[in-house]
Amino acid sequence: MLIKPNMSLFKYLLIPIFITIIFISSETFAKKAAIVIDFDTKEVLFEVNANTKNYPASLTKIMTLYILFDQLEKGQITNQTKLKVSRIAASRSPSKLYLEEGSNIKAEDAVMALIVKSANDVATVVAESISGSEKEFAKLMTSYARKLGMTNTTFKNASGLPNRAQLTTARDISILSHALISNFPEKYKLFSKQKFTYNGKTYKTHNKLMLSYDGADGIKTGYIRASGFQLAFSAVRNDKRLIGVIFGGDTGKQRDNSLKIIMNKEFAELGINKKEIKTKIVKKETNKIQTNSYSIVVGTFKYRNSAEKQIKLIKNKYPKTTTAKTANIVLIKVSGKQLYESRFENFSKKEAYTACKRLKKYNRDCFIRS
User: Fold this and answer.
1) N or C: which end of the chain has fewer CB within 10 A?
2) Residue 7 three-state SS
3) Could you give the domains of the chain?
4) Of residues 235, 242, 239, 332, the one with CA closest to residue 281
5) Alpha-carbon distance 65 to 59, whole Å?
6) Taking each helix axis from N to C terminus, what angle separates 7-22 and 252-269, rounded to the nearest 10 degrees?
7) Using CB atoms within 10 A of its CB, is residue 70 exposed (0-12), middle (13-18) or buried (19+)?
8) DSSP string, 41-75
9) Helices then strands (H, E): number in the chain?
10) pLDDT tens digits, residue range 32-68?
11) CB < 8 Å & 24+ apart, contacts of 70-75
12) Which residues lie closer than 8 Å to 262 by C-beta, 6 or more apart?
């Protein structure tokens, strides 16, 4: 009897071989690295050379945007604030908007120019507007990085243009991507924009994988000759978000294909595949979300008693956040492992975001489930 081969199984047997080929060290080009993390638990699902230092290229702009978002949230800058273009900013090399010295750009346009066009002149404009000089802004960027736990990152400019002292790792960029999505969820939605129009000219996103990958919603590409082609990436399938970072691609297409294979592998190992996505979306559309259907997760633990202790601690220390909310321990499975989530339930969407923001001010873990 002729046995028909299982092509799906065959494909996943090839993945480890393919990944090994992708990440063989090459002195002729940038060091290669990758990492994929589970957004909810921060668990590392896949990593190769995740702590190897490399140049961040335009992934640097994720931090520039993070600080700009923080300024907007605090009201120190508004969307309509006009940022002045200096001679230094106007002289920056492409990619750029070709802003003229002495002109202005609104903060909201600066945000989109950084996300979609990855404009180097705009990065310098933002840096100088916030800190007076790009050198001082780079110090601020590094300070933010340390607070976020990016221990192997040093910034020297706001754009990612070549600087031998500006270094990061795939792990640190995954930490930064996670923080931006967690702390600025509404502003993060801008990363899914495919186009941006400024002064009558329309610019298209450099993130080609975002346009074709099921569930993709951001975030940023990067390239300089010394770094290779890089990508920080996020995708959500069946309410499960994974963040992937890849460094040192030989071409943009090879970088995208490599990360696509790795992300697909990790989604599959979580029991999530493409076919389930549309079903989930339809279900969400037909079932209206209740007003108080949001929960906040304040910890994820291996043992139930640890989760219970966390519930008590948060209740006692932050009664303003937890009063009139239902405390619950929820068993979840991550990569075949059983974990316990400490949750507080019955929040509206607005209440949930406010609660997490408050807890994060005190360096408490918090993310939202709906």
Assistant:
1) N
2) helix
3) 48-234 (3.40.710.10), 294-369 (3.30.70.1070)
4) 239
5) 10
6) 130
7) middle
8) T--EEEEESTT--B--GGGHHHHHHHHHHHHHHHT
9) 14, 13
10) 999 999 999 999 999 999 999 999 999 999 999 999 9
11) 70/144, 70/183, 70/184, 71/130, 72/107, 72/187, 73/184
12) 19, 34, 36, 46, 244, 246
How would you list the strands of the sheet with 44-48, edge to edge?
Answer: 44-48, 33-38, 240-249, 228-237, 216-224
| pLDDT digit string (tens) for the chain, length 370 residues | 444 444 444 444 445 544 554 554 443 345 899 999 999 999 999 999 999 999 999 999 999 999 999 999 999 999 999 999 999 999 999 999 999 999 999 999 999 999 999 999 999 999 999 999 999 999 999 999 999 999 999 999 999 999 999 999 999 999 999 999 999 999 999 999 999 999 999 999 999 999 999 999 999 999 999 999 999 999 999 999 999 999 999 999 999 999 999 999 999 999 987 644 443 433 333 343 345 678 899 998 888 888 899 999 998 888 888 888 888 888 887 766 788 899 998 888 888 888 988 888 888 888 888 7
Question: Tokens standing for 212?
Answer: 């074709």
Return the amino acid letter for 64.
Answer: T
> Is the bond preceding 93 in cis, omega lying within 30 degrees of 0?
no
Stated length of the chain: 370
CA angle 171, 244, 224 (to 5 degrees): 75
Among candidates 218, 242, 241, 217, which has minimal Cα distance to 231?
218
Question: Hunting for tokens 């199984």 — which residue is that?
Answer: 9
Q: Is 98 left (phi over 0), alpha (psi -120 to 50) or beta?
A: left
User: Which residues make beta-bridge pairs with 242?
Assistant: 38, 235
Q: Looking at the whole model, is its pTM more than 0.90? A: no
DSSP one-letter string for 115-148? III--HHHHHHHHHHHHSSHHHHHHHHHHHHHHH
Residue 32 to residue 264: CA distance in whole angstroms: 19
CA distance 358 to 351: 10
